[in-house]
Structures are given as structure tokens and as C-alpha cells.
Write a structure and sequence with these properties.
This protein has 188 residues and is mainly α. Helix content is 63%, strand content 4%.
């Protein structure tokens, strides 16, 4: 059971961040174009994803260490028997404009960071995220929970935090798709 959940998280992480990576290949005029509503350009969205990943990974890495520190042989097998992720609540995080999200100032993009640097950061962040997931391959990720205020998720374990990171990126893929569509409509 837990191996299926971990495999799902791993696969979703690779799929979503492969999609994120593809956005760096867009022409500069598309990357730098701001939507009419005054929102972020694709370039800024990519920077925001890397900033958010940075801060989420601080929590994920600390939580991974703490979860592993709580591991004792067979002390969590009973917890794993009925374990499941709250996929529906996490999927909402991946849906653009599904709820109000007041992001902290330190996750606000500047638009001045070199795109190659942003791309490289995201690649390292994905590797770190997958490494944490691999360290928790026996279900240890359920042993440590911290509070997530976004979308009233409450106390969530390490697996949920990793899913949150992935769903956050997915949310912004939709935003980038909308930006690109708007750009192409104005171009024609």
C-alpha cells in the first residue's frame, strides 16, 4: 500500500516537473509577456516556483530527518495499515484559482533572476525532493506532521508536503498555459 503511494508521488513529481522544465524552452517574448490582468509573466512564475520550492524543501528536509529519527522497528506498521493521502484536498492546490492564496513576500518573484539559474535551481530541488521521498520509502514519512495553513490543510505528514510542492507547481503550469494562450491570441 505505502509503496503504491510513494510510487505515485514519485511519478507525479517527475511528470509535473518535466512539464515545468519544458516551459524554459519557450521564446523570450512569450516568457516575458505579462497577461492583461497584470499578473506574472511566465518567467516570473518559474522564478516563483523555485522560490516556493526552496522554502517548502527546508520544511520537507527537516521533517524527513525528524520522521527518520522517530523510526523504531515495527513502531509504525499499524499506522500504515489504513494510511492514505487526502488526494482530493491536495488536488485543489494544483488547480489554478481554486482558492485564495496570500503568498508571503519572500516567495514573490523579482523577474531579474537569470532563467538558467532558475532552471538549475528547480532541477536540484526536484532531486532533493525525490531523495527525501526515497529516504522515506518504508512509510516513515507518516511519523512527523507539521501545520500547513494553505487551503486549511492542517497538520500534514512529509508525503503530503511533497505532494503539496508538486501540486503547487501544477497550479502554476495552468497559469503559464493561460498566459501563453493570451499571448498567442493577441499575436494573431
Amino acid at each position: 500500500m505505502i509503496s503504491n503511494i510513494i510510487n505515485s508521488i514519485h511519478n507525479e513529481t517527475e511528470i509535473v516537473f518535466s512539464e515545468v522544465d519544458a516551459w524554459f524552452k519557450n521564446p523570450v517574448d512569450i516568457l516575458n509577456c505579462h497577461p492583461e490582468n497584470g499578473g506574472w509573466s511566465i518567467r516570473e512564475i518559474l522564478e516563483h516556483i523555485s522560490l516556493t520550492n526552496h522554502f517548502l524543501l527546508i520544511l520537507i528536509k527537516k521533517a524527513t530527518v525528524k520522521a527518520l529519527g522517530k523510526t523504531k522497528p515495527a513502531n509504525f506498521n499499524e499506522l500504515l495499515a489504513d494510511y492514505d493521502l487526502d488526494w482530493e484536498k491536495l488536488k485543489q492546490v494544483g488547480e489554478h484559482k481554486s482558492f485564495y492564496w496570500n503568498r508571503p513576500q519572500h516567495m514573490q518573484p523579482t523577474g531579474t533572476v537569470d532563467l538558467k539559474e532558475v532552471k538549475d535551481k528547480i532541477e536540484v530541488q526536484v532531486a532533493e525532493c525525490l531523495h527525501c521521498l526515497q529516504q522515506l520509502s518504508n512509510g516513515e514519512g507518516i511519523l512527523y506532521k507539521t501545520r500547513m495553513t494553505v487551503n486549511d490543510l492542517g497538520k500534514i505528514d512529509v508525503y503530503h508536503y511533497i505532494c503539496f510542492l508538486v501540486q503547487h507547481a501544477k497550479r502554476h503550469i495552468t497559469q503559464m498555459e493561460n498566459n501563453k494562450k493570451e499571448f498567442e491570441q493577441h499575436k494573431t
